[in-house]
């Protein structure tokens, strides 16, 4: 499947910004299950400084804002050809050792509620248990925007029994690591059925399964990623894989607007002709 993606992120500052430094994880890489046909990253109101691969293998573009700016606009767009591999990404690669993905973070610390959830998880293999964990999270935690934020932990989302895809991923990672299965957070794009325009990117998790390597699990939708998914970045939790992160000096507040569009090539052509 060939997917056409447009992702616009705009920051409008309450007062002119004096300095800002941002890490952009907005460049998908060609790998197992996806081939980047064309991709362009444009930044308005800030200056690209350097591009590099981090310890998780993510392509990072570092941009700075130095001067009086009222807004910053980041545009990522292109085409990615994808395959349905039932979520299997394959062997572990990169600078970070596999054991690192057993390390908990504040967002993925397994507390009482995570351990209670795991008591109902069974199966005769790691793969079976991860499928059971995904299904249990999907059943327990309702997808409900506005009930969490980027700092929400797995335990807090379980206590509220609601959250967004980021929270589902953090709970899955906390549970997998508690079972001594390496797990990581994935940010990316998802083509939704009957809906091209979206208000945010998507997030899911991957667990390292013996004999298969990394396998994706999306508890928000209770499926393993297929040809509708495009991987952007990975890490121990949201902090390592956020599409945009950084720091700023000299602004008391900002308004963030995000517009994401993901469509198959056939859908894109049909819309342009209508």
UniProtKB/TrEMBL annotation:
Residues 157-221 form the Transglutaminase-like domain. It holds the Pfam family Bact_transglu_N. This is Transglutaminase-like domain-containing protein. It comes from the Bacteria. Gene3D superfamilies: 3.10.620.30. The lineage of its organism: Bacteria, Pseudomonadati, Pseudomonadota, Alphaproteobacteria, Hyphomicrobiales.
């Amino acid at each position: 499947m060939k997917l056409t993606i447009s992702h616009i992120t705009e920051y409008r500052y309450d007062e002119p910004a004096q300095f800002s430094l941002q890490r952009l994880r907005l460049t998908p890489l060609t790998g197992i299950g996806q081939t980047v046909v064309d991709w362009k990253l444009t930044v308005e109101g800030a200056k690209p400084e350097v591009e590099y691969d981090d310890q998780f293998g993510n392509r990072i573009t570092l941009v700075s804002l130095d001067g009086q700016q009222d807004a910053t606009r980041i545009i990522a767009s292109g085409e990615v050809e994808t395959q349905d591999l039932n979520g299997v990404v394959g062997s572990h690669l990169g600078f970070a050792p596999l054991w690192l993905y057993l390390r908990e973070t504040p967002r993925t610390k397994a507390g009482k509620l995570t351990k209670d959830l795991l008591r109902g998880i069974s199966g005769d293999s790691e793969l079976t248990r991860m499928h059971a964990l995904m299904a249990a999270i999907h059943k327990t935690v309702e997808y409900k925007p506005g009930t969490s934020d980027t700092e929400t932990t797995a335990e807090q989302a379980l206590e509220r029994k609601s959250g967004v895809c980021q929270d589902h991923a953090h709970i899955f990672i906390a549970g997998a690591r508690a079972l001594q299965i390496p797990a990581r957070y994935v940010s990316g794009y998802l083509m939704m059925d009957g809906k091209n325009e979206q208000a945010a990117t998507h997030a899911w998790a991957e667990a390292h399964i013996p004999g298969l390597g990394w396998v994706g699990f999306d508890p928000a939708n209770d499926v393993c990623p297929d040809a509708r998914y495009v991987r952007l970045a990975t890490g121990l939790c949201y902090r390592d894989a956020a599409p945009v992160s950084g720091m700023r000096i000299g602004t008391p507040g900002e308004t963030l607007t995000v517009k994401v569009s993901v469509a198959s090539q056939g859908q894109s052509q049909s819309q342009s002709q209508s």
